[in-house]
Design a protein that fits this description.
Layout (H helix, E strand, L loop, with lengths): L13 E7 L3 E7 L6 E3 L3 E2 L3 H14 L2 E8 L9 H17 L3 E5 L3 H10 L5 H27 L1
Parallel strand pairs: 1-5, 5-6
Antiparallel strand pairs: 1-2, 2-3, 2-4
Length: about 150
């Protein structure tokens, strides 16, 4: 079950948003106030060690205090094997970085990202390069908006 964002955030720290796939990890980061999400370079997955080393560099460089991971539920809302993989991934992030890690429903974010990108004059090949980043931005922005609406 995705964790709801709690209203007490790590003050002044950024929030990292991740859209984790088998080949890439879309990455987004909040501004220091936790209001807007901005996409970063997509990580091309190579091995767990290298992927986590790249995430560690981002977390340290940008002073990240929380992480939001897209949670791939089925359209019915039930969990499948991909959701179980993300639960394990989130737990590994918690263990390695000692940060709060939230799972956030990502249903339709890739479709929404593709729709947004189709409305631009961007080429199909360029859209493929940035869709994971856009999905991470949408996941993070949705999570932050939900947190703002709670308070």
């Amino acid at each position: 079950m995705p964790a709801a964002p709690d209203s007490c955030t790590t003050q002044g720290k950024r929030v990292l948003g991740l859209d984790v796939g088998s080949k890439t990890i879309g990455v987004a980061v909040s501004d220091p106030l936790g209001i807007t999400a901005q996409g970063l370079e997509t990580i091309r997955r190579r091995s767990k060690r290298i992927d986590f080393d790249q995430l560690e560099t981002i977390i340290r460089t940008l002073d990240v205090g929380e992480v939001v991971v897209g949670y791939p539920l089925r359209m019915s809302g039930s969990e499948g094997t991909e959701a179980e993989k993300m639960q394990r991934f989130a737990e590994q992030l918690r263990q390695r970085f000692q940060l709060p890690v939230y799972l956030w429903d990502e249903r339709l974010t890739s479709a929404q990202a593709n729709r947004v990108l189709r409305e631009t004059d961007m080429s199909i090949s360029r859209r493929r390069q940035v869709v994971d980043r856009m999905a991470a931005v949408l996941i993070l922005q949705s999570w932050m908006d939900s947190r703002a609406n709670q308070g």
